[in-house]
Amino acid sequence: MTTSLTPPAAPRTGPRYPTAQQLRRRRIVQRIFIYLAAIAVGLFAVFPLYWMAITAVKPQAEIITPEPVWWPSELVFDRFPQVIDRGFGRFLRNSLIVAVTTTAIGLVVATMAGYALARFRIPLRKYLALVILATQLFPVVVLLIPLFIVMRNLGLTGSLWGLVVAYLAFITPLMIWILRGFFLSVPNELEEAALIDGCTRFGAMRRVVLPLAGPGIAAVSIFAWIAAWNEFLFALTFVRSESLRTLPVGLAFFVEQERVDHGAIMAASLLFTLPVVVFFLFVHKRLTTGLVAGAVKG
């Protein structure tokens, strides 16, 4: 009779891999949490717009109540003609003039300066770029009084051109920095090939570099437009005439000394915000792509 001396097999101690069913269950749970988080963020972002729109059409007695009124008993649309009669069209025209002029001039200056910093061998080029970006470190309030003195000595206070110059002083440096990153991301070989084929430096820039940097140009244009459209402090300080007020300043003057017409303020805010929201919905993909791509190289 023989006995086996073979030791028992050791239990497996290797890593346990999840099964396909477990992986599928994890993906479903992760997707549910992602959708719930997206819905929460969306509601958080949309609710102020909803409340502004609802308040604009509420009766006056339902605007300020102990308990919030989520839906008005009747819709009141009379405030919108009243807002337009109080100078909204004039404020809109002034804001359009300032925003369009600031965006156009800033885009030309930033394109030329960003291209020069990215392509030409300028002495202390990197330090110059840092100095340009360092102008964004100063709070606007700190420079408000010195800039007002400069504008007064130049005779630019009380005019829309003064606002354009002030906005360009703070918007253009960041536009230059973003476009510089885009121009650095364009390979030099493409531009050199255009120069070999007979293009001038400006022709190569216009035909090769600028089309490839199109998302960055669109991004800085949108940034300049929104910054000039929403600015309030300079517009309030440099322009005192009622006929030259921009939309943010005109909206602030809806708050009267003896009473506050919350319905009219919300109606004006809705008219002021809605075009920007609609415009942003069309361009937000290009804006985010441009800002991220422009930050890759610097």
From TrEMBL:
Q: Which domain of life is it from?
A: Bacteria
Q: Does the keyword Cell membrane apply?
A: yes
What UniProt keywords apply to this chain's record, in alphabetical order? Answer: Cell membrane, Membrane, Transmembrane, Transmembrane helix, Transport
Q: Name one GO biological process term.
A: transmembrane transport
Domain ABC transmembrane type-1 per the UniProt entry, residue ranges: 92-283
What would be one Pfam family of this protein? Answer: BPD_transp_1
Q: Which CDD domains match?
A: TM_PBP2 (cd06261)
UniProt lists the family membership as follows: Belongs to the binding-protein-dependent transport system permease family.
From the Swiss-Prot or TrEMBL record, give the protein name: ABC transporter permease subunit
Lineage of the source organism? Bacteria, Bacillati, Actinomycetota, Actinomycetes, Jiangellales
